[in-house]
């Protein structure tokens, strides 16, 4: 990495060169301050992310690709770098429009879901080789001396992994739920399902309380659960899994749309819930900004969601919800904009477009010719159906 970029990132300084560290940092704000000026300011600054509303070239998420590939722009990606990265994920190669990968893989369901997405665009891809991390946690810690490249679905500001769409945009490998034992659902289907659920309950008919269901995958969630115990008329936040403690049944995504204020927290990394709950036309309160997915930078705080610091206290969360009730019209407008953004700019075609643009730009950085490798298998449509889930 260029030293200047390393230093900028080490001090979390955002520069025009959009170093990796400069993701969608949320300026800290004080709950005791009125949030209305934040909304007005954010709206004043906000510009539509694409020149055409249908965003045929997926300009909306293009900045993330530039930012993530930025560290490799100068020196490129060599065969030696790829060799070092191989132990951290699954090796994929695209050669003449066909996809190949190593035969043995961890998390075969996750691989199958990503492959499903890639098969749809294979003929448009240049010859390319990349390492896909199918574990939850990113693999390239910042300032570790190791620079990757590794593709991961979620990263923090402390990682240099190149973000790619999560396997859960496809069908079978998302986290299993009681009513969706094979995962949280194929995104194309879930989008329509959630939009229909949102249409069932108008803003006026939503319960004016904060809502959360999930596992205790991060302690950040405890504060809201505590507030729920203290003020059940203001918040209903309960764990569906928490070792040694009482838990409640899961609520399907569509059930979330009954409530006005939906909380999103990071978990082990980014939670897959954010894109689903934005489709409820409820107001999303997004806690913390440590974990990102590829589309997070395009969502703007106060425009599409309310940013909440991860160290918010019980009292400040309580005050925030009380204040949001008082500014019901503003809350409804943010909820509507959040919905519109995901509906218009996080379509399955945007996810595929992101993969296509990412691989096309990444391929330009490769400093060697991608070649067939003995033992690699070709990924075909039926590979997924044949896998033992
Ligand atoms: N989930 C859900 N209903 C529930 C509990 C969880 O829809 O009652 C979804 C949740 O939104 C997320 C996934 O299941 O997309 C896993 O949630 P969990 O809290 O277990 O983990 P996370 O990924 O958020 O850390």
Which sheet architecture does the biggest sheet show? 5 strands, parallel
Q: Identify the CATH class of the largest domain.
A: Alpha Beta
Going by helix content, strand content and strand pairing, the class is: alpha/beta
Continuous helix count = 13
- Assembly context of the chains: single chain
Shape: globular
Q: What pattern of helices and strands is seen along the backbone?
A: HHHHEEHEEEHEHEHEHEEHHHEH
Number of strands: 11
What is the name of the CATH topology of the largest domain?
Rossmann fold
The name of the CATH architecture of the largest domain is 3-Layer(aba) Sandwich
Report, as a whole number of angstroms, the end-to-end distance.
40 Å
CATH superfamily of the largest domain: Glycogen Phosphorylase B
Beta-strand content estimate? 5-15%
Bound molecules: uridine-5'-diphosphate
> What is the arithmetic mean of pLDDT?
89
Description:
This protein is of the alpha/beta class. Helix content is 34%, strand content 14%. The protein is built from 13 helices and eleven strands. The protein has a five-stranded parallel beta sheet. It has a four-stranded antiparallel beta sheet with strand order 3-1-2-11. Helix 9 links the parallel strand 8 and strand 9. Helix 3 (62-69) runs parallel beside helix 12 (348-365) and helix 7 (222-230) crosses helix 10 (314-326). The radius of gyration is 21 Å and the shape is globular. The chain starts with a helix and ends with a helix. The model is unreliable at 1-24 and 383-389 (pLDDT under 50). Bound molecules: uridine-5'-diphosphate. Uridine-5'-diphosphate (UDP) binds at residues 175, 177, 184, 213-215, 217, 240, 250-253, 267-268, 271-273. Uridine-5'-diphosphate (UDP) is lined by residues 175, 177, 184, 213-215, 217, 240, 250-253, 267-268, 271-273.
């Amino acid at each position: 990495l260029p030293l200047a970029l390393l230093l900028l990132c080490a001090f979390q300084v955002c520069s025009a060169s959009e170093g990796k560290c400069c993701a969608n940092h949320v300026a800290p704000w004080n709950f005791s301050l009125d949030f209305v000026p934040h909304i007005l300011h954010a709206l004043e600054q906000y510009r539509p992310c694409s020149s055409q509303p249908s965003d045929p070239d997926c300009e909306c998420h293009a900045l993330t690709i530039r930012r993530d590939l930025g560290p490799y722009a100068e020196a490129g990606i060599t065969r030696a770098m790829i060799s070092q990265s191989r132990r951290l994920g699954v090796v994929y190669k695209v050669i003449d429009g066909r996809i190949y990968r190593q035969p043995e893989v961890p998390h075969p369901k996750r691989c199958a879901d990503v492959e499903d997405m890639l098969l749809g665009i294979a003929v448009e891809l240049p010859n390319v080789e990349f390492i896909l991390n199918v574990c939850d946690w990113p693999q390239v810690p910042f300032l570790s001396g190791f620079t990757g490249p590794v593709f991961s679905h979620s990263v923090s500001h402390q990682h240099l992994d190149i973000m790619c769409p999560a396997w859960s945009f496809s069908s079978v490998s998302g986290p299993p739920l009681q009513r969706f034992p094979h995962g949280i659902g194929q995104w194309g289907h879930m989008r329509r399902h959630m939009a229909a659920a949102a249409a069932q309950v108008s803003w006026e008919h939503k319960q004016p309380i904060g809502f959360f269901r999930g596992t205790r995958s991060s302690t950040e969630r405890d504060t809201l659960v505590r507030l729920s115990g203290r003020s059940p008329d203001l918040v209903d936040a309960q764990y569906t899994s928490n070792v040694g403690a009482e838990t409640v049944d899961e609520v399907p995504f569509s059930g979330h749309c009954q409530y006005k204020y939906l909380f999103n927290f990071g978990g082990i990394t980014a939670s897959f819930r954010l894109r689903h709950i934005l489709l409820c036309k409820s107001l999303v309160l997004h806690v913390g900004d440590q974990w990102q997915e590829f589309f997070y930078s395009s969502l703007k705080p106060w425009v599409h969601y309310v940013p909440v610091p991860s160290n918010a206290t019980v009292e400040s969360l309580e005050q925030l919800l009380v204040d949001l009730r008082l500014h019901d019209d503003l809350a409804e407008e943010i909820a509507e904009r959040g919905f519109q953004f995901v509906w218009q700019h996080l379509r399955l075609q945007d996810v595929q477009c992101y993969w296509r643009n990412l691989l096309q730009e990444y391929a330009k950085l490769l400093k060697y010719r991608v070649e067939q490798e003995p033992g690699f298998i070709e990924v075909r449509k039926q590979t997924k159906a044949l896998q033992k889930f």
